[in-house]
Amino acid sequence: MIVKLSREQANQMIEEALKRHPIEACGGIFGRMEGEIARVERVVPLRNILESEIMFQIDPEEFLRVLLDLEGEGLTHLGFFHSHPGNARPSMLDLKYMRLWPESIWIIVSSVNYEFAAYQITGGNLREVYISIE
Ligand SMILES: [Zn+2]
Predict the structure, then answer these.
(1) Per residue in 6-29, pLDDT tens?
(2) From 8, 15, 16, 24, active-site residue
(3) Cα of 45 to ligand 1 centre, how many Å?
(4) What CATH number is attached to the domain comprising 63?
C-alpha cells in the first residue's frame, strides 16, 4: 500500500501538529483508492477531545459530519492522521485502536522532527505504509 500526499497536504499536517504541540493533533484523511494507491485529496484537522500529549480521541459527531460531507463529494475515508510530540512510531494505544479500524491508514507525524510514518492493520498484522509526497 502506498499513500500519496501533496507537499501542501504534508505541510498542512506539520502545521497542525506544530499549532497543537505538545497536545496531539488529529484529523481525517479522505480521497480515493486506486488499487494499492491511496490518493489523499483532503486532510481535515479535527479536535482532540482529550487534549492529551499521549493520546487522541476524535469527537464522533464532528467526524460523522465531515464524513457525510466528503462522501457526498464522492471521496472515501482513507484513514486518520495524528501527531506525536516525539517519534512517529505507533504507541500501544494506537495499535489497540488501529485494530478497531482494520484497513484504515494511520499517518503519524512528529511535532518534534517532522518525521512521517504510516501504518495499517491488514489481516490482523501491522504493516508500514509507504508515503509518497509529491
Ligand atoms: Zn499515537
Answers:
(1) 999 999 999 999 999 999 999 999
(2) 24
(3) 15
(4) 3.40.140.10
* Residue 55 alpha carbon to ligand 1 centre in Å: 6
Q: How far is the CA of 26 from the centre of ligand 1 (A)?
A: 9
Enclosing domain of residue 23: 2-126
In a domain, 114, yes or no: yes
Number of domains the chain contains: 1
132 occurs within a structural domain: no
* 131 lies in some domain: no
Interval 48-107: pLDDT, tens = 999 999 999 999 999 999 999 999 999 999 999 999 999 999 999 999 999 999 899 999
Cα distances from 110 to residues 18, 72, 76, 100, 132, in angstroms, run: 9, 32, 25, 23, 17
**134 in catalytic set:** no
**Within a domain: residue 77?**
yes
Q: What is the b/e burial string over 79-112, where b = at least 16 CB atoms within 10 angstroms of the residue's CB? A: bbbbbbbbebebeeebeebbeeeeebbbbbbbbb
The three cell numbers of residue 121 are 492493520
Question: What does R_g of the chain's alpha carbons equal in angstroms?
Answer: 13
Residue 17 has phi, psi (to 5 degrees) of: -60, -40
